[in-house]
Amino acid sequence: MIEAERGLAPEASEAAAPPYAAAAPPSWETIAPPSWEAIAPPSWEAIAPPSPGELLVVVGPTASGKTELAIRLAERFGGEVVSADSVQLYREFDLGSGKPTSVERARAPHHLIDVADPLEAIDAQRFAELAEAAIGDIRRRGRVPIVCGGTFLWVKALLFGLSPAPPADPEVRARHRAIAEAEGRAALHARLAEVDPESAARLAPNDLVRVSRALEIYERSGRTQSAWHAEHGFRERRHAARLLAVQRDRAELDRRIEARVAGWLEQGWVDEVRSLMARGYGGARAMGSVGYREVRAHLEGGLPAAELAPAIVRSTRVFVRRQRTWLRDQPVAYVALAER
């Protein structure tokens, strides 16, 4: 009866079973993880205005469109942009830092860009102090502050503060730079691995600034940087903040990175770095950032011209992976941003 009701002959019910019934199902372990890239994000125009005291913070990977999103939000909400980029605040480090153009700055006021001499040491703590002052000034004038940047340690310093580790010591850092120049950056990283393997594991050997800082903390306090961070916890927010980012799939982001690097090189990035080095800025902190260090290596004879752009693109992609790792643990709202 049951077979007849289904429209099957009784003797054919077993034979007519769908073919997948006989196939061995795949293991649950083959289930792919969910991808945020497969989810269509809302348009940036759906972003609600900030509530009183709320801080809008535009984050996201390099070349994802942070500057454009921040400017559009500033235009829409009567805001001003506070840069959270560890290179943009230095004068004369222009092309490779992705500073907003004069046209972009005319659309919205910007803060903490071109405010420091190339040889001035600005760390995350000092940035947080400068950013707090800028945010307070913007709010006192009845405007909306919008923080924008990809230096996530600085964003974290602004939102949560930093652990009370010993402050930077120029003499210690100079000694570390001398070691790196004489023995190579890998030698300094190896020293860090001996005393603070946890910090060494998360820092690239060529990241001289951060490797030096982690080693400096141990040398001055006898405690590892990872121990200081674990004690601090970064749990208490200083600001009610809403984190926003432009969603880009990996292929699109790769194309944007390649186009940006090619464009900057065509606009004279190598000449900019050559001029900086000629004026004694070859050892500036910003010169160790992604892109600038590759151009410097090229000018010093360590990187052929044909390999320069690919090397910068590779370093940028590595940096983007680190940015994505940080973003995965943050309550970020992703939005779509169409080109104009």
Automatic annotation (TrEMBL):
Biased composition regions of type Low complexity, renumbered to the chain: 9-21
The record ties this protein, via SUPFAM superfamilies, to: P-loop containing nucleoside triphosphate hydrolases (SSF52540)
Q: Which UniProt keywords apply?
A: ATP-binding, Magnesium, Nucleotide-binding, Transferase, tRNA processing
Q: Where is this site: Interaction with substrate tRNA?
A: T151, R173
Renumbered residue ranges of the record's region Interaction with substrate tRNA: 85-88
Give the EC class as a word: transferase
Disordered: annotated segments: 1-21
Q: List the EC numbers from the record.
A: 2.5.1.75
Binding of substrate, residues? T62, A63, S64, G65, K66, T67
Establish whether keyword Hydrolase is in the entry.
Answer: no
Q: Which GO terms describe its molecular function?
A: ATP binding; tRNA dimethylallyltransferase activity
Q: Which Gene Ontology terms describe the biological processes this protein takes part in? A: tRNA modification
Q: Which HAMAP family match?
A: IPP_trans (MF_00185)
Describe its function. Answer: Catalyzes the transfer of a dimethylallyl group onto the adenine at position 37 in tRNAs that read codons beginning with uridine, leading to the formation of N6-(dimethylallyl)adenosine (i(6)A).
Q: What is this protein called?
A: tRNA dimethylallyltransferase
Q: Which organism is it from?
A: Sorangium cellulosum (Polyangium cellulosum)
Q: Which gene encodes it?
A: miaA
